[in-house]
Amino acid sequence: MPTFNTSEIEISTFFLIGIPGVDPANIWVSIPICLMYLVAILGNCAILFFIKTEPSLHEPMYYFLSMLAVSDLGLSLSSLPTMLRVFLFNAREISSDACIAQEFFIHGFSAMESSVLLIMSFDRFIAICNPLRYTSILTGSRVTKIGLAFSLKNVLLILPFPFTLKHLRYCKEYLLSHSYCLHQDVMKLSCSNNKVNVVYGLFVALTGIADLTFIFMSYMLILKAVLNIASQRERLKVLNTCVSHISAVLIFYVPIISLAFIYRFAKHSSPIIRVLMADVFLLVPPLMNPIVYCVKSQQIRNLVLGKLCQFP
Hints:
mainly alpha, 12 helices
C-alpha cells in the first residue's frame, strides 16, 4: 500500500476533545454542562427582558448591565454548539472555516465583556465621586454611543484573527486542546510561520490587561472618595453598590489570570487542569453574572420574585 507524508497534506478539518480521561463518562458530564448553559441563557434573557420592560430600570447602570448580559449570551452561544456536539454526540470533527468563525465570536464577546466591565467601573466611579452630575453625564444617548464605540473597537480588534489564521497552513497536527476553538490553540497547529499571529495575539492580551488596570485605578479613586466619608455606615452603604460589579470582575478575570499562570509556571501540569480552567472561563461568567445581580440588586430581585409569585 502507498504511504503518504502527512507533512505535505494540508488539513481542512480539526478534531475537538472533551475533558481528558473522562471520555467514557461524557454523557454524564454533558448533564451539568447543559444545565449551566440553560441557566446562563435564561438568566441573561431575563435580565434583558426586565431592563427593557421595567421603566424603573431605565438607568445608565442597568443599560450597562444589559450590555454585559448581551456579552454573556454571545459567549454562551458561541461555544454551545461544539460543546454539546462533543459531550452529547461524541462528534469531534469541525471544519477549519467553522473553527475560525467560532474563535472569532468567542474572542470577540470575551473582549466585549472585558470592555463592559471597564465601562461599568467608570459608571460606579461617576455615581460615587460625582453623584449630582451622574444622570447629566451618562445620558441615554451617551450610553448608547459608548456601547457602540466599544463594540466597534472590539470588532476591529478581533477582526484580524480569522484572516491571519486563514492564511496559515495546517498539515501536521489536527487535534485541538478544547471542545471549542481558540486563536492560540488553532495557531499552534500551523506548519507555516505564525509570528504575526503570536505578536498580534500578545497585543490583544495586553488590551485586556489594560482594561483590568483601568478598572483597578477606578476602584482606587472610588476607595479614596469613600474614605473621605465621615460615617462608617455611609461608607459601607456606598461600597455595597460596588459588590456586584467587583464580583463580576473577579468571576471573569480570575480564571483568565489562573490559566495564564498555569501556562507560564506549570507547563507540565495535568492537561485536565488547563481544560477545566478554560471551561470555567467560558461557562461560569455567563452563569453567575445574572445570579449575582439578581441577589445584590433589590430592584431586579423584587421583579424576579414578583414574577415567580404569579405562578400558582
